[in-house]
Amino acid sequence: MTKRIFHSICAVAVLVFLTSLSISMGILYTYFTDGQMEQLKSQAKLIARGASEGGIAYLESLDDLNCRVTWVSGDGGVLYDSENSTDNLENHLQREEIQNALDYGYGESTRYSVTYMAYAVYVAQRLPDGSLIRLSMVQYTVPSLLLRVGQPICVVILVMIIVCLWLAYRLANVVVHPLNSLNLDDPLSNVGYEEIKPLLMRMDSQQRQMKANQVKLMRKQRELDTVTNNMCEGLVLMNESCTVLTMNPAAAKIMGLVRPYVGVNFLSLTHANVLEPLMQRALSGSHGEDVVELPLGQYQVDASPVRSGDKVSGVVLVMFDITEKRLAEVQRREFTANVSHELKTPLHAISGYAELLKSGMVQPEDVPGFSEKIYAEAQRMVRLVEDILKLSRLDEGARDMQREQVDLYVLASETVRMLTPAAEKVDVSISLTGESIRIVGIPQLLSGILMNLCTNAVKYNRPGGCVEVSVTDETDAVVLTVADTGIGIPAEHQQRIFERFYRVDKSHSKSVGGTGLGLSIVKHSALIHNAKVELESRENVGTTIRIRFPK
Ligand code: ADP
Fold it and tell me: How far apart are CA 76 and CA 64, in angstroms?
């Protein structure tokens, strides 16, 4: 802008200068030509007087004249000419200045001169004897005038140029300074030109709008970041050349990356190659989904194209963890197979014994024994079905069961009382220690825990052994402990005994009426109470199981 103003000022200055120069030259030209005529006129008078007194000798004696002197007789014949021989000159009677001088004593004219081959001024003065003295000289022209005044004009032009440039530079800076020092962060605070006030007001309103939009955008961005950063599903957004635009921390973790990578080619990342077919599908415009094995487990990955008009401008990948779902499916399948198997055995036994009874092949004295076996197998099935039903209720989260204040010690003493006859039968003593402590829990489930643990402690004990049940109040938990001096659990089985239908010794478990579901029920019931299950066991020494109910 400064440059433009500078150039404009220079152009205007040059225009004004040239116009002034032309006008001045016009005035000067008139002044000089008038002066030239006046000078010639007075010279003509003087020379006429001298010629009338001294004749040709006088004229010839004239030196350093800057004009041509011609003496013309009254009939137009040339008597003397300072620059030409009189023989070569024609009669001058018809010349305008001669005519005027003959008539009025003085005449003058300006015309083209063949002698000078330029415009010349002529002045004629009549002498008393009727002859005429004529003076002539080349008329001043604009170039000749310029030549005469050229030097001072050049100096003036030079000075004018310098002054003009300096002024233009200063003016441009002065004009532009208020614009350069505008405070654009706060447009209305500027006190500059009145003319730019509408512009500043517009800028101010636009800035306000932009700031409001920026705040809105930032809030939206924060919301989006909060959602994507906290979601467990992996989310990756990339452009059409697979450059990652957004990757949430979950996606990085799922892919085994140390941090989310942005601005890199997705396919160059570790483990991304398994997702390439899905991405190619999305890039070709169709939705794709697949289950892939990633470092963190099994994931269902959905790849969707991002469209801008008709073009695919990117891909969104969403990764869902299905490890647990798959595990649950496997467990469900295993459970179904186990249940069928567990039910099949007693059913086969019952049907075998019943068939024998039906065929009448059984001796009457053997009938009670067969009936006893059928009853025992049926009881096993009933226990199994009851345990399965309990587990399925626990899988549902026992939502239909009410929590209430329960005295764990009272519950334990009831269990011990109920089990004492059975324990005595196998020569196992059972005792309870501790104090009355109330916890918030589901009484049926707590009874189930106690019953299963105490039954196991008796079942897997040895004659003369003992079972100690205790309820203690610790700083952060109420602890239920069931310790026995039984057969113990080998170390390699300890991890798995809480799994459904897992038994260390299947035949032993069956012989003592076990279903293989007791400890699973204990584990799930404890989980519903947020309680922790601890196991300590040494083969042939005994087993201690502790349930810690947090306060
Ligand atoms: P079960 O109905 O067979 O007793 P559980 O789920 O209650 O099923 O127990 C799983 C397995 O853990 C049992 O079969 C048994 O081998 C072992 N077990 C459980 N409690 C004890 C214990 N107190 N002492 C020794 N082994 C035990």
Answer: 26
Total residue count of the chain as it appears in this document: 551
pLDDT digits (tens, 9 = 90+) for 7-44: 888 888 889 888 988 888 888 888 888 888 898 999 99
Q: Which two tokens stand for residue 281?
A: 């599908």
With a CB cutoff of 8 Å and minimum separation 6, the contacts of 261 are: 244, 247, 252, 269
Q: How far apart are CA 370 and CA 350, in angstroms?
A: 9
Kindly list the protein residues whose Cβ atom lies closer than 6 A to any atom of ligand 1: 452, 456-457, 460, 484, 486-489, 497, 502-505, 509, 514-520, 543
Average per-residue pLDDT in the chain? 91
**513 CA from centroid of ligand 1 (Å):** 11
How much is the average pLDDT of 214-228?
94
Looking at residue 498, what DSSP letter applies? T
Contacts of 300 (CB under 8 A, 6+ apart): 289, 290, 291, 319, 320, 322
Q: Is 470 within 8 Å of 434 (Cβ atoms)?
A: yes
CA distance 443 to 433: 20
pLDDT band, residue 148 (cuts 50/70/90):
confident
CA-based end-to-end distance of the chain: 79
How far does the centroid of ligand 1 lie from the alpha carbon of residue 445, in Å?
A: 18
Burial of 226 by CB count in 10 Å (0-12 exposed, 13-18 middle, 19+ buried)? exposed
pLDDT in tens, 72-105: 998 999 999 988 888 878 898 899 999 999 999 9
- Is the pLDDT at 502 greater than 80? The verdict is yes
What pTM value is reported for the model? 0.55
Q: What is the DSSP annotation of 241-283? A: T-BEEEE-HHHHHHTT-SS---SSBGGGSTTGGGGHHHHHHHH
Beta strand pairing status for 542-550 and 78-81? unpaired
> CA angle, 481 as apex, 479 and 483 as ends, to 5°?
165
